[in-house]
Every structure is written in structure tokens, then in C-alpha cells.
Design a protein that fits this description.
alpha/beta, 11 helices, 11 strands
Length: about 350
């Protein structure tokens, strides 16, 4: 394999629709994004879903043994199955054979494997899963973190999430000066529990971010914020709810379109608009969530990821590598420690 392209290690056995949809999405990414892909898993199963006459240039199959099942306790399974697909994929990043890893398998196992094999970035106490949401502003997205890695969070952790999220928003999502909000039950500084009040003060005093105050639930998709931080318990509920709302809205649109010839004509006229609506509301369009804070680029996909989601997750990984997200986060914390000394 060449050394100039971004190389993505893909857990081909992770996910409800693995390996078929995973491999299909990965091959599309190879063609359209110019990435090199390393498909990790059972070689026979991977080869069985490869299209006939597949060009294997920039594609490598890396053997592994088994996968972490959804019903298994993640940390125990990761330790008990050192040659599982998620562990082998993480090892490829650790060994510098790959620049990033993607898995749609057991999200807890992916995080446990990343922590054990890649470790945390210097200065980061807890990694966070960041998910990109659409907003009411057509050209704007909001990054929410944490959406599941840490059920309980200290104010210090949330401050770190805010810094990491700002870096990602600026250099990957292209926001010049990301506005950071703290998810809370009111706009006033004194609102929320003790942890929320203390976090608000820490964020306000942090000069590395642009903190604009508390964000209520109704503000999440308003477009007024670029980054919103919360603990993983609340964030995961928010993520699942937003996914459900998007699916409900898309289903309502389908059901309310006229039937018969009138409907066919209407759909033909509205096709570009409907496509844009789907792109803004469908969680599959965003591909996955970035695990920020570990020493490697790690994208965690939805368990039901289909080929388009896999493609978009690989695109997200490539953008994170191209924009040197890890190096920029490290630089921010080094400068912070410098200021404190």
C-alpha cells in the first residue's frame, strides 16, 4: 500500500448488517474519497460479499478472530478476545498501519478497545463521543458531546469536552469561532444542579473557547450554538430522541405526499427539495460519531449502519485526519498547561 493516502481500518464484522453493508460502503469510499481501506474480519466472509471483479488496489483484508457481541460486557469481552475484529482494527492504528478506525459494532467495546490500545491524549481525563446534529439553519450543524461515553461527568470533564469540541468544530466543520453552550434547564447562570453551576463558571473563565451560556432543550437545534456539552446520560437520550424525530418526520412526509399520478408528478417536481430534507434530517447522512480524547481517530457508527452511513463515517474519519484534529487538541492543552504554569 502507498503511504500518501489516508488509511482507514474498518471493523468489517461489526454491525447488524456486517459484513455486506460495511464492505459496500468501504469500497464506495475507496472509489470516491481516494482512501486506502483495511477490511478487518473473517477473510472468507469478507470475500463472499465482494462484488465480482473487485479491484483490490488500495484494499487489504486483515484477518481477525470473532467479534464482540452486543450482549457481552464490553471491557470483559475486549480483554477476553484480543484478536477480535475491533481489537485488530485498533491495533492497526496503534501500529501506524492505519490513520483511523471505524466500527458499527458494540459501541462500548469500541470505546474500551480504544482506551486500552490507543490510550488517552495527554491532558484528557475522559474521552467523549461527539455527534453532529442538523439545525434550523440550512448550512449549519451543531456538535453535541458527550452522547454516551460517560454517564456521570465532573465539571472538569465537561470543560475538556468543550475544548475538544471547539477544535473539531473549527477545523473539520469549518466554523471560524465556534459558540459553545452548556445544556441546562434554563438560560440563567444560576440554573441547574451544583455540577452545572460549577461547569458554567469554568467554561466562562476558559479563554480557549467562546462560551455563550446555557443552552436549553429548545436551543439545541436552533443554530445558535456550534458546540453543546452535556454528560453522556443526557446526551445519549438526546441522540436517540433526535434520531427518532428525524425518522418520524421523514415518514410523515412520505405518508402525506399525494398518491397516484398526482403524487408521481408532485414527487418529480419536489425531488430536489425532498433530497435536501433527507440529507438534513436523516442520521445516516452523518455516518457516525467521533470518539474525541483518545490517541487516534476513532469513528463509532450506528449498529444498523447501511452502506451510505459507512461511506459518510469514513468521510468523517478522513476529514479528521486531514485536518489534524488530534494534533490540534494536543496543542490546545499544551498551551493551556503553559498558561497555568
Amino acid at each position: 500500500m502507498g503511504s500518501t493516502c489516508v488509511r482507514i481500518a474498518i471493523d468489517a464484522m461489526g454491525g447488524d448488517l456486517a459484513p455486506g453493508e460495511i464492505v459496500t460502503g468501504a469500497l464506495r469510499a475507496r472509489e470516491e474519497l481516494g482512501v486506502e481501506i483495511l477490511l478487518v474480519g473473517n477473510p472468507q466472509q469478507i470475500e463472499s460479499v465482494l462484488p465480482p471483479n473487485t479491484n483490490m488496489a488500495d484494499v487489504e483484508i486483515v484477518p481477525s478472530e470473532g467479534a464482540v457481541e452486543m450482549e457481552e460486557e464490553p471491557l470483559t469481552a475486549v480483554r477476553r478476545k484480543p484478536k477480535s475484529s475491533i481489537n485488530v482494527a485498533m491495533d492497526l492504528v496503534k501500529q501506524k498501519r492505519a490513520d483511523a478506525v471505524f466500527s458499527a459494532g458494540h459501541s462500548g467495546a469500541a470505546m474500551a478497545s480504544a482506551l486500552l490500545r490507543l490510550g488517552r491524549l495527554p491532558g484528557i481525563d475522559r474521552p467523549a463521543i461527539g455527534a453532529v446534529f442538523p439545525t434550523m439553519v440550512a448550512s449549519k450543524q451543531v456538535l453535541i458531546l458527550d452522547v454516551g461515553a460517560n454517564v456521570d461527568c465532573r465539571p472538569k470533564f465537561l470543560e475538556q469536552f468543550a475544548v475538544m469540541g471547539s477544535v473539531y468544530s473549527q477545523y473539520v466543520l469549518g466554523v471560524n469561532e465556534p459558540k459553545v453552550g452548556l445544556l441546562n434547564i434554563g438560560e440563567e447562570d444560576c440554573k441547574g444542579n451544583d455540577a452545572a453551576v460549577r461547569t458554567h463558571q469554568m467554561l466562562r473563565e476558559n479563554h480557549q473557547i467562546t462560551f455563550t451560556g446555557n443552552a436549553e432543550g429548545r436551543d439545541v437545534l436552533s443554530g445558535d450554538f456550534d458546540v453543546i456539552v452535556c454528560d453522556g446520560f443526557v446526551g445519549n437520550v438526546l441522540l436517540k430522541f433526535a434520531e427518532a424525530v428525524g425518522e418520524v418526520m421523514l415518514q410523515i412526509i412520505r405518508e402525506e405526499l399525494p398518491q397516484g399520478l398526482q403524487g408521481q408528478i408532485g414527487c418529480a417536481i419536489l425531488k430536489p427539495n425532498l433530497k435536501r430534507i433527507k440529507q438534513r434530517m436523516d442520521h445516516a447522512e452523518h455516518g457516525g460519531a467521533l470518539l474525541l480524547g483518545v490517541d487516534g481517530i476513532c469513528i463509532i457508527g450506528h449498529g444498523s449502519s447501511q452502506a451510505p452511513s459507512v461511506f459518510n463515517a469514513i468521510r468523517m474519519a478522513k476529514e479528521a485526519v486531514d485536518n489534524q484534529v488530534l494534533q490540534r487538541i494536543q496543542s490546545q492543552y499544551q498551551s493551556l498547561q503553559h498558561e497555568g504554569s
